[in-house]
């Protein structure tokens, strides 16, 4: 019985991890969210900050993040029209996860540079 509960718990954990991976899949979403955790940004600012992303890909990723309620898009009535993106309170719940990923990445990079020590 205990083993069955443990197995079910493991399956639920794996499904939850798959959900997160699906939501944050690809090369760019985590970087976009990380940028927006600091400040709201215009499209052109994000294009400059997320190095290597194309305009078409940025537009696609922003739409997906907005559809998943992680960011908001605000059109400002300026001349020319300005669009700002901002992390939602729900999206901000990912900040700790992204910080943990960044910490691990820094340690990993240092470990590999030092020959695995």
- Tell me how many strands there are: 3
**Order of strands across the main sheet:** 1-3-2
Low-confidence stretches: none
Distance between the termini: 42 Å
Shape: globular
Main β-sheet description: 3 strands, antiparallel
Mean of residue pLDDT values: 92
Compressed to H and E, one letter per element, the order equals HHEHHEEHH
Q: Count of DSSP helices?
A: 6
Strand content is 5-15%
By secondary-structure content and strand pairing, the structural class works out as mainly alpha
Radius of gyration: 18 Å
Helical content class: 55-70%
Describe this structure as you would to a colleague:
By secondary structure, the chain is mainly alpha-helical. It is about 65% helix and about 10% strand. A 3-stranded antiparallel β-sheet has the order 1-3-2. Strand 2 and strand 3 (about 80-85) form a beta hairpin. It is globular. About 10% of the residues are buried.
């Amino acid at each position: 019985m205990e083993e069955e509960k443990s197995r079910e718990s493991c399956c639920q954990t794996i499904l939850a991890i798959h959900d997160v991976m699906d939501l944050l899949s690809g090369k760019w979403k985590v970087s976009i969210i990380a940028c927006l955790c600091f400040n709201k940004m215009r499209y052109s600012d994000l294009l400059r900050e997320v190095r290597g992303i194309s305009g078409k890909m940025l537009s696609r990723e922003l739409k997906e993040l907005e559809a998943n309620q992680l960011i908001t898009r605000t059109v400002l009535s300026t001349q020319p029209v300005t669009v700002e993106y901002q992390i939602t309170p729900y999206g901000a719940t990912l900040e700790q996860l992204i910080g943990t990923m960044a910490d691990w990445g820094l340690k990993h990079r240092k470990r590999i540079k030092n020959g695995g020590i």
